[in-house]
Amino acid sequence: MLFRLPFRLRRAPLGLAVVLSLAAFRADDPRDPGRVEHLADFPSKFVKPRHVDVWLPADYPRPGRRYAVLYMHDGQNLFHPASSYGGVAWEVDSTLARLQLRGAVRPDVIVVGVWNTDRRFREYCPARPYQLLSAARRAQLAQEGLLPGPPQSDEYLRFLVQELKPYVDGHYQTDKRRQSTFIGGSSMGGLISLYAAVEYPQVFGGAACLSTHWPLSLQDNPSDFTSACLRYLGQRLPAKGRRPRLYFDFGTATLDARYEPHQLRIDSLLRAKGYTGRDWLTRKYEGAAHSEASWKKRFEVPTRFLLSPAAGK
Predict the structure, then answer these.
(1) How many independent structural domains does the chain possess?
(2) Does residue 266 fall inside a structural domain?
């Protein structure tokens, strides 16, 4: 069953809510982060049920306005520290409210945060590139406990495209067009965001891939999955006119220190495919770690790239 909580959720434990007085804020006040509606145990015939959070800006809904939608993975990390990994949330709501007030991003944007489950790695691992790996490599990933079974990313994307998006479009004032529909995430969430944009170019107009976890492994830094992704992208990346806009980044500390050589290979392919600055951006962040705190600090960069007022025209 879906439970829609029509009040403002802000930094509260799962299942609890803090009700803030609307009279304390103005719609143009940067302190007003809008509100989050919590959809508990969203059902699916493709994957396990999971919670979904929907962020709505302070002035939602404006009559006659249709809102772009940014779908994000690891949704429990986006808004509430109490549910976030390590107790640090991205504060997506506050960041977007601030950027909208400045006119740096489109005013007509909502965010759908899709919580992960205990099958996170299997759901976020792109199935087609994985199928290009050797049997020995697959066995290694299974031994690490990362992929005890085959990827379920295709099922997860069917859930997003065939079940969740129709619900969101049916219950909120959304702009259903691909140029107003985006997807994003970090680490494995970066991989599945890229995969979603390539598999469903008619649905997603762009993807934000922060600290994309190209090696798959957590123990070493192999290049074979990146090679598989290059083969996959070479065959499946849509032609110009339907290609998604792509944002990538990586840091230089902790797990992110492994990513630069992989990302450079991906960048070379995109360049060869004719990607330019309008449709593609890769950023390197010196000293940035693989953490919610790091992604929180730079979330506004991919947001500006995908959701700039000019991009919505």
Answers:
(1) 1
(2) yes
